[in-house]
Specification:
Elements: E1 17-20, H1 26-37, E2 43-44, H2 53-65, E3 68-73, H3 75-79, H4 81-92, E4 96-101, H5 109-115, H6 129-139, H7 166-172, E5 194-195, E6 201-202, E7 213-222, E8 224-226, E9 231-238, H8 244-252, E10 257-267, E11 271-278, E12 282-285, E13 288-293, E14 298-306, E15 314-323, E16 326-338, E17 349-354, E18 357-361, H9 367-380, E19 385-388, H10 396-408, E20 412-417, H11 419-422, H12 425-438, E21 443-447, H13 478-482, E22 487-489
Parallel strand pairs: 1-2, 1-3, 3-4, 8-16, 18-19, 18-20, 19-22, 20-21
Antiparallel strand pairs: 5-6, 7-9, 7-10, 9-14, 11-13, 11-15, 12-14, 15-16, 16-17
Helix pairs in contact: 1-6, 10-12
């Protein structure tokens, strides 16, 4: 469709759909939104609006006021800075987002984190844009109703061709007894395709986005560690329905392990879960392991040997847990050291220490990267509170009183480490005070740059400064972050 033939963007005060697209995809997008417009949907698009400073302000206003946000995804969309800014703002404002896949694409990590859980729609699954528009109208009752004119003169349903088109899927789907329409299924009908892990489309039933899973962690530690032999610590992450995997492991151990279980973690699918095991008295083989939570139980096992220099009758371990590269809790436990296996040995003791208050230490030069990761923490652990300095640290009184007070009241010290942070005297003052008052386990590095570029300071070099895989949150709007009720700005 030619640009000059496109309908005018909606300018009223009722609910409307905001169209976010790359201009290189205009022809496909115009055909689709025109079909939706003909079915009574109020739509705002940027065609015909002159660019300039006021244009940017208008875009922001229209995103903030829209009822739904359609992002037409393609390689060109992902590479467009303007499209990315529109999408980030829509995510920040918690708009109803509808990803429309124009071309098969592989999402970058920052988009997968935000768009992956949503149901996608794929116009190419239908014989024509009219079929697609018809099914959108049929299947989004209650979701896009506020964007559609009442009593609109809606075109009749198009005739659906047999074979692999969208109409065939509709005809094959069972119908409710009391209505001629297909059953409604919440956010989006399962008629629309969804991207699977391999990136291929599936024309199969999909349900509404699932809520986060509530999981537990269990540590199975030897009741007694035998000197001069290799032992194993097993850590399980599971839902209540998957408890059997832990019970089976306990039975197979024949009483030689002790288990302590803690519940209450809420975690989304596709979260990268990293478990790191540390002990001053043990040599641990491969102390760091990362797996992806997809709803099935996870099992982390760590082989270790008691150090020859250890003369204690007990040794202590600390297990650090991270979600998407962000520390969320740690498990401290103690096990006995023996010369032989003894089922009656002192049982392992496990203490769970969740992070409820975190102090953020960072360089001003890294503010954007820090915000992206902290916003990711808020997605994963919404109840966590943060201390963050936003004023100039030139004022000595502020540092001596407010900063130290915030560190004293925190459960964990998030050290955002980078080249710039390694050169910052204020960052050094903060971590040295945290180390002095709380000890080494209090410091949790969040590396932004590889350690080859910024080696950790000698007092902290035993901590893990390796840059981990991180599913970056696409939201980077600073004002939204600083206005959060979970942030204490110093």
């Amino acid at each position: 469709m030619d640009r000059k033939d496109l309908f005018k963007p909606y300018e009223g005060k009722e609910g409307y759909i905001f169209v976010s697209y790359s201009h290189s995809d205009s022809e496909k997008v115009y055909d689709i939104i025109t079909a939706l417009y003909n079915r009574g949907y109020r739509i705002w698009h940027d065609n015909g609006i002159p660019p300039g400073g006021l244009f940017v302000d208008l875009l922001v206003k229209k995103v903030e006021e829209c009822e739904a946000f359609f992002c037409f995804l393609s390689p060109a969309y992902v590479e467009s800075d303007s499209c990315m800014r529109e999408l980030r703002l829509a995510l920040i404002r918690k708009k109803k987002i509808v990803p429309v896949e124009l071309e098969e694409i592989e999402l970058p990590p920052e988009l997968s984190f935000s768009l992956g859980p949503l149901n996608w729609v794929c116009p190419s699954s239908f014989g024509s844009v009219d079929e697609f528009a018809h099914e959108m109208s049929e299947r989004t009752a209650g979701f896009l109703d506020s964007c559609q004119q009442k009593n609109a003169d809606v075109p009749a349903a198009p005739t659906c061709a047999g074979g692999g088109g969208g109409g065939a899927l509709l005809q094959d789907r069972p119908r409710d007894k009391d209505t001629k329409k297909p059953p409604k299924q919440g956010f989006f009908s399962s008629l629309f395709s969804r991207r699977n892990k391999s990136g291929a489309d599936q024309n199969e039933a999909i349900s509404a986005p699932k809520p986060n899973d509530t999981v537990s962690f269990s540590v199975l530690s030897p009741r007694a560690v035998i000197r001069d032999s290799v032992s194993v610590i097993n850590i399980y992450m599971y839902t209540g329905e998957q408890r059997e995997v832990v019970e089976r492991a306990i039975r197979e151990s024949e009483g030689l392990v002790r288990e302590t279980s803690k519940n209450g973690f809420s975690v989304a699918r596709q979260t990268h879960v990293t478990v790191r095991l540390e002990s001053e008295d043990a040599e641990i083989k491969d102390p760091l392991e990362t797996q992806v939570w997809n709803g099935e139980s996870l099992h982390f096992d760590f082989q270790f040997r008691v150090r020859e220099s250890c003369l204690n009758s007990q040794i202590a371990f600390t297990c650090y847990v991270e979600f998407n590269g962000i520390p969320v809790t740690r498990l401290n436990f103690i096990t006995a050291v023996s010369s032989r296996a003894d089922p009656k040995a002192i049982p392992a003791k496990v203490i769970r220490e969740d992070y409820h208050k975190a102090f953020i230490s960072y360089s001003r030069a890294d503010e954007q990267r820090m915000l992206e990761r902290v916003l990711g923490i808020q997605e994963l652990v919404p109840e966590m509170k943060f201390w963050l300095d936003k004023q100039s640290l030139d004022a000595g009184d502020l540092w001596r009183e407010e900063i130290r007070k915030a560190i004293d009241l925190s459960d964990v010290f998030l050290l955002f480490w980078s080249v710039a942070a390694s050169r910052s005297e204020y960052v050094e003052k903060e971590w040295r005070y945290g180390l002095e008052t709380h000890g080494l386990p209090f410091i949790a590095p969040v590396p932004l740059d590889p350690p080859q570029q910024c080696p950790p300071p000698e007092p902290l070099e035993s901590l893990n400064f390796t840059v981990r895989a991180y599913s970056q949150n696409v939201i980077t709007e600073k004002l939204s972050f600083f206005n959060s009720k979970n942030i204490e700005v110093l």
